[in-house]
Design goal:
Layout: H1 3-18, E1 23-32, H2 39-59, E2 62-75, E3 81-84, E4 91-96, H3 101-104, E5 111-116, E6 119-125, H4 141-150, H5 161-181, H6 185-201
Parallel strand pairs: 1-2, 1-4, 4-6
Antiparallel strand pairs: 2-3, 5-6
């Protein structure tokens, strides 16, 4: 190898080292077997909402590594939701028709993301979920809810009403930047911290 070739390889290595590292988020996609969704609602999710979410985060160097399972949303005697099929160490993306009544209270919410009994949950109500419509105002439901997890909103215990409002505005702002301008420095920074937290919460393997 002559000097010119060596310099060329060194330059290529320098460029490669500047490529952003792919951040892999483990997602457990749980389909509620009791959900009464129409074929149109399922098609809208699988062919529009979900691909839009994957493309948006992919531009940011964030990969959603999904595992698909069938689960349920049951109710306790006190009408509190019980999620079957979710696991710790994942962002559990629960697909259903409408949110549990105890969470929705008749507001026809499209989604909610929270830390519930130690599980990271993003619950998507396919009846009301939507793709991107209006910048800063009406964004992809799935992307918006996932950002609530990646940006650490779920770790704020009992947020005040104004904190909730601030985070909604912030996530729509970041989501719009990602959608239209492909800007994602802060999202990547927060996602890296979120992945590390998930890793620490992953239960050890069980051997029989």
């Amino acid at each position: 190898m002559n000097r010119r070739e060596f310099v060329g390889f060194a330059a290529l290595g320098a460029v490669a080292s500047k490529e952003p590292q792919t951040l892999v988020v483990p997602v457990r996609r749980v389909v509620n077997s009791r959900a009464r969704c129409t074929p149109e609602e399922w098609n809208r999710f699988w062919w529009t909402i979900w691909p839009e979410t994957v493309r948006g985060l992919g531009r940011c160097g964030i990969q959603l590594q999904t595992t698909d399972v069938t689960g349920e949303i049951k109710l306790s005697p006190a009408d509190k939701p019980i999620f079957v099929g979710v696991e710790r160490g994942f962002l559990n993306l629960v697909l259903t028709d409408t949110l549990p009544l105890d969470w929705d209270s008749g507001r026809a919410l499209a989604g909610v993301t929270t830390l519930h009994e130690g599980y990271h949950l993003s619950v998507i109500a396919l009846r009301y979920a939507r793709a991107h419509r209006v910048p800063y105002v009406s964004l992809n439901t799935c992307l918006h809810e996932i950002l609530h997890a990646l940006l650490g909103d779920i770790f704020v215990p009992r947020p005040k009403w104004y904190q909730t409002g601030e985070r909604e505005i912030r996530d729509d702002w970041y989501g719009t930047d990602l959608w239209l301008l492909h800007r994602c420095e802060e999202i990547r920074k927060m996602t890296r911290a979120y992945i590390e937290r998930l890793r620490l919460e992953t239960p050890p393997p069980h051997f029989e």
